[in-house]
Write a structure and sequence with these properties.
By secondary structure, this protein is an all-alpha fold. It has 2 domains: about 50 residues, no CATH class; about 45 residues, no CATH class. About 40% of the residues lie in helices and about 0% in strands. It is built from 5 helices and no strands. It starts with a helix and ends in a 7-residue tail after the last helix.
């Protein structure tokens, strides 16, 4: 049922795009920010990482993409074999996996590690 709704939305978007009713902007992260274009009123919608949307005044997070379209960025962490602060590094990684860090990550639009 949901994939049918997504297909209908995609078809409606493509039809509007083809008819010239939708102006498409692409953004190079080095020169423009989609979320800033939305904040200035130069674009009505941007698809952006959740954690990035909340950083710009004048933007509002509308919600996640449907699961079939969602893509997650995975971050990894490791400790250098040559670090002078191995205990501190281990403590930091342990903190990142803690419930306290999970709450903070969620508040900033990130998914905590599983």
């Amino acid at each position: 049922m949901r994939s049918g709704w997504i297909a209908a939305c995609a078809l409606a978007f493509a039809s509007s795009l083809w008819a010239g009713e939708i102006k498409v902007l692409s953004s190079n992260a080095m020169t423009h920010s989609l979320k800033e274009l939305v904040a200035r009123g130069e674009a009505e919608l941007a698809v952006q990482q959740i954690s990035e949307v909340s950083l710009v005044p004048g933007t509002q997070y509308a919600g996640p993409l449907p699961p079939e379209l969602q893509h997650y960025t995975v971050f990894s962490a490791g400790i250098s074999a040559r670090t002078a602060e191995a205990d501190a590094a281990r403590a930091f990684l342990q903190f990142l996996a803690s419930p306290a860090a999970a709450a903070l990550l969620r508040a900033k639009g990130l998914e905590p590690p599983r």
